[in-house]
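Thread: quick sanity check before group meeting

JM: Hey all, I'm pulling together slides for Thursday and realized we never actually wrote out the predicted structure for the chain we discussed last week. Dropping the sequence here so it's in one place. If anyone has concerns about the input, flag it before I start.
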Amino acid sequence: MAGPSFGVAAGMPVFWTIVISVLGMMTSVLIFTQIGEKIGYPKITRFINYVLTRKGVNKRFLYIWDRFGIVGITFLTPILFTPIIGTILVTSMGSPKGKVIIYMFFSAVFWSITLSRIVKVMV
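JM (edit): ok, ran it. Output follows.
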């Protein structure tokens, strides 16, 4: 969420703000889908679930997962979670890496365009 906002507010053209925001999100998504299993999703997921449970976000995650599945979580990841946490949570729920990457890409494009346009109108 911060990338498009800061980019447009700093005077960057909207097109480049969108491109850089999408590339930034997809970098973390690719890293955490590819090396996540090697660093141990169970350990990371337990830690994140502990933190999220204390903040009440875990209930929100499970509600969205039960209702909308991978599409819902990946779509709302930039708003409710960070790309890193969203990627780890979705992948640790057993979602295929390819689907996670594709859905996260569409989510990144949608939110980058939407937030850039909103900030551009406000500035």
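AS: nice. The chain is about 90% helix and 0% strand. Residues 2-122 form one domain.
JM: adding both to the slides.
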